[in-house]
């Protein structure tokens, strides 16, 4: 197994742009006047329990922002903030993932976003004890306003969090 190439960029977005995105996705109070987006329930995260079968207790919520076309009111905000910083020439998908807190930290199974080489930007909305694990075993901590760049065709995995209510990140696949 060769060492996987990746890049970490802390404080990726200017603080005002990050705060706006963070506060929209993780509001500090319970008000629903135009600040919610539709979250879809995804019943399986690639993972196996001790018996080698799918662990039905692990799920996540996702909001698909873009897949071949804009699907979300967040598209303009996200693409405005990320397109030039990532040098996106062709966009494949933007998806926001929300992993709920688990009492014990759970690492999900390895997966590839697509089978062909492409760029992936994984942007953390909040700091927590969750992480992304690369095929070579490197763990990248979830730190607010951190961008992890790597080839999404290489196997990687996600995890839950135990020290925050949720772990939220934005996954951008592009060329």
Short key terms for the protein model shown above:
three-stranded antiparallel beta sheet, seven-stranded antiparallel beta sheet, alpha+beta, 13% helix, 10 strands, 175 residues, Jelly Rolls
Describe it:
The protein is built from two helices and ten strands. With 175 residues, the protein is α+β, with helices and mostly antiparallel strands. The chain has one domain (6-26, 38-174): q2cbj1_9rhob like domain (Jelly Rolls, Sandwich), CATH 2.60.120.620. The strands form two sheets. A seven-stranded antiparallel beta sheet has the order 1-8-5-10-4-3-2, with no helix packed on it. The relative contact order is 0.24. The mean pLDDT is 90.
List the helices and strands and how they pair.
Elements: E1 6-9, H1 15-25, E2 40-42, E3 60-67, H2 75-86, E4 91-100, E5 119-124, E6 131-134, E7 139-141, E8 147-151, E9 156-157, E10 166-174
Antiparallel strand pairs: 1-8, 2-3, 3-4, 4-10, 5-8, 5-10, 6-7, 6-9
Domain count: the total is 1
Q: Helical percent range?
A: 10-25%
SS summary, helix count: 2
Structural class: alpha+beta
Share of β-strand residues: 25-35%
Short summary:
With 175 residues, the chain is of the alpha+beta class. Helix content is 13%, strand content 31%.
